[in-house]
Amino acid sequence: MKSLARLFRYGPGPSSSHTIAPAIAARSFRSLAEAVGVDHFRVTLYGCLALTGQGHKTDLAVTEACAPYPVEVIFDVATRVVHPLSLCFEGFKGSEMVLARHYASLGGGEVTSTDDESVCEKDIYPYRNLEEIKSFMAANKIVSMKEFCLRYEDESIDSYLLDSLKRMFAAIERGLQSDEYLPANDNPRLRWKRCAKGIAQTAEKITDIDARREMLMSAYAYAAAENSASGAEVVTAPTCGSSGVLPAILYFEYHNLGRKIEDVRDALYTAGVFGNLVKQNASIAGAIGGCQAEIGTASSMAAAALCELEGLSLYQTEYAAECAMEHFLGLSCDPVDGYVIIPCIERNGMGALRAYDAYLYAKYIAPLRKNQVSFDDVVEAMKLTGDSLTSAYKETAEGGLAEILKTKK
Asked: With 90 as the cut, is the pLDDT of residue 409 above it?
């Protein structure tokens, strides 16, 4: 597994696989191109990047990252590629192409390349699954995920995670202050008027404690997701498209329950380990695994973080993370018009609520029976399910709600 700093990135929404990762690739290619003296670039987007790249502003992300060089962006929806988030950069001197590199976006802002290895990130954890981690922790009498992570992370990780947490909270607070329309495309259906502020105001008037909690969590999740959809900065948790789930749970604990920010920060270690395991053994990209890979993983991470904050056992934490993921298996990624507004924003709210439910199951049901499904099992099942989904249900905007609503413009 890679560093938690590579899981919790920050950058512009609405999609880490469509904005943050292509921008990283563009900056790397620009550095290579400067050494050979090119004068303009051509960038070709394939697969999901071509099909939904305009809605996700991929062309803007690569153009800005390549500045000041002129850039031609091509959306190639015809060429079949092995990886659904592929892109090719070419550098020209006049009409002569003198440099070319190929990249793939892996989800959550990570990039890989076979001909530009400088973008490839290294593993720092020598474990493949949770069972291996649990065995190591037991053998070495390690009692917390933070203690485990600090065996492998750089000494700066504590301050990095605190900064990430503050950025998550800032995204929520920005989202709660606005009730303007989100910038989208020309489709009037996507004239989404922000509603996080209104949900929060409604929640404050609710006298039923349980309903008030759920609506506040929903407001916080909406706030971060609407912030991401507007193209503003969010923290990948584990992606931009699912960046409201974990922050909503943690913000409620901090803002409404008065948790110390250092304790909330430490919960990111636990959330990060579970998110990293999904990323390593399945995928966190909607274009690869469907929305189960994004909202499912985010809900799993949030449930685990909440168990950590509540002092539950590692068994209960695993139960919560598994339970949260299990009940999102098969969730398709079908952004209407290729933009992460419908149904993505609402799914962030639902993901936060399901994370809380999974925590409750772990707290009260897990002690009564041994769970027959491990976290590693459900991650394997998620990969099998994602591999079985047709491309129409993996962020192409060609299936599900996206297909149904095409005819209702």
From this structure: no
Average of per-residue pLDDT values in the chain:
95
Mean of the pLDDT values across residues 355-383?
Answer: 96
Question: What are the beta bridge partners of residue 40?
Answer: 92
Q: What's residue 192's pLDDT?
A: 83
Confidence at residue 187, expressed as pLDDT on a 0 to 100 scale: 66
Q: For 112, phi and psi rounded to 5 degrees? A: -135, 160
**R_g over Cα of the chain:** 21
**By the 8 A CB rule, do 341 and 288 touch?**
no
Rounded distance, CA 123 to CA 280, Å?
10
CB 302 within 8 Å of CB 351? yes
Helix (H) or strand (E) holding 404: helix 400-406
pTM: 0.95
CA distances to 39, 48, 79, 86, 248 from 116, in Å = 20, 22, 22, 14, 37
Calpha distance 304→308 (Å, rounded): 6
pLDDT of residue 185: 56
C-alpha of 255 from chain center: 23
Question: Rounded to an integer, what distance in angstroms lies between the CA atom of residue 239 and that of residue 68?
Answer: 28
Count the Cβ atoms, other than its own, within 10 Å of residue 239.
Answer: 30
All domains of the chain, ordered by start, with CATH? 4-118 (3.30.1330.90), 130-406 (no CATH)
